Amino acid sequence: MSRKTKSKLITSLLEILLFVCISFIIIVPLLIMILGSFKDATEVTAFNLELPKQWLFENYVTVFEEADLITAFFNGILITVVSTAITIGVSSLAAFIVARRKTSLSRFLYYFFFIGTIIPMQTIPTIRLFSALGIYGSYTNAILLYVAINISFSCFLYTGFIKGIPKALDEAAFIDGASTIKVFFKVVFPLLKPISMTVLILDFMNIWNDINIPLYFLSSPSKWTMPLSVYQFFGQFSKSNWNYVFADLTLTILPVFIVFLFAQKHIINGLTEGSVKA
Q: Domain for residue 142, yes or no?
């Protein structure tokens, strides 16, 4: 075996070992949480991987009753779906203009959206702005904020993908008399399915898992989402009933896990096919 082959083999083994360690770090706490959600209040404090002596499914019943998860679930679905839909619609259309128009304005917009991925939202007095608009504390202000936060990165991904679509398709449609809007929706947008799935999944997970915006921008607990209900539930039960906390956490991550499980290949395909072209 040559020295070069040995070096490649050692590198591959080290990479495998690294990924195994990372997987172990992620999976073990996840298993402790899931198993702990079925244990009683005393047994769960061991925080180990042992199977429950008795599987207490009623822990989940208690969580549903105490945490009002049904309301929190539909709050999260409403905010996540509407925010993601608006983000996809606006960012894909903006990216189409940025990618196709070779003007100083389009270049400015491209870097404007890029900068938007770096500047944190805290630099903008959002609470005062929404209060002045009369929408602070409503679903609307949370949705608008999520759209503003996610639109920059989404537009950045869409722009790279659209640059890979032959411009001849647009020109052929223009020759047939199609308008810019019609070219986008009839010709370009159907080709954006891979990157749209990527944007949808990434935005869904970011919005669903967020706790800060619901905490500061939704005035009533009846409007809170599931991650924020976990925050409240944790404060109520973490001192004595970790089994309930674990059950609440398990139910909260379940929608994201299901979405990611069935759509993970779309994330890879979309990011690969939509790699940014300078």
A: yes
Tokens of 259: 């979405």
Q: Is the pLDDT of residue 123 over 60?
A: no
Structure tokens at 206: 């970011």
pLDDT, tens digit, 9 for 90 and up, residues 170-205: 889 888 888 889 999 999 999 998 889 889 888 998
Tell me the average pLDDT across 13-35.
Answer: 91
- Domain with 227, as residue range(s), is 66-273
Distance CA 278, CA 255 (A): 36
d(CA 152, CA 112): 8
DSSP string for residues in 212-256: HHHHHHB-SGGG--HHHHHHHHHHHHTTT-HHHHHHHHHHHHHHH
Q: Which of 111, 125, 113, 119 is nearest to 87 (CA)?
A: 113
Pair 125, 25 in one domain: no
pLDDT interval class at 164 (50, 70, 90): confident
Distances (CA, A) of 154 to 68, 146, 150, 172, 219: 33, 12, 6, 27, 28
Burial track 7-36 (b if 16+ CB lie within 10 A, e otherwise): eeeeeeeeeeeeeeeeeeeeeeeeebbebb
pTM of the model: 0.79
CA dist 196 and 37 (Å) reads: 35
Q: Quick one: residue 225, left, alpha or beta (phi over 0 = left, psi -120 to 50 = alpha)?
A: beta
CATH of the domain at 110: 1.10.3720.10
261 against 150, higher pLDDT: 150
* 233 and 108 share one domain: yes
Helix axes 69-100, 193-209, angle to 10 degrees: 140
What pLDDT shows up at residue 276?
45
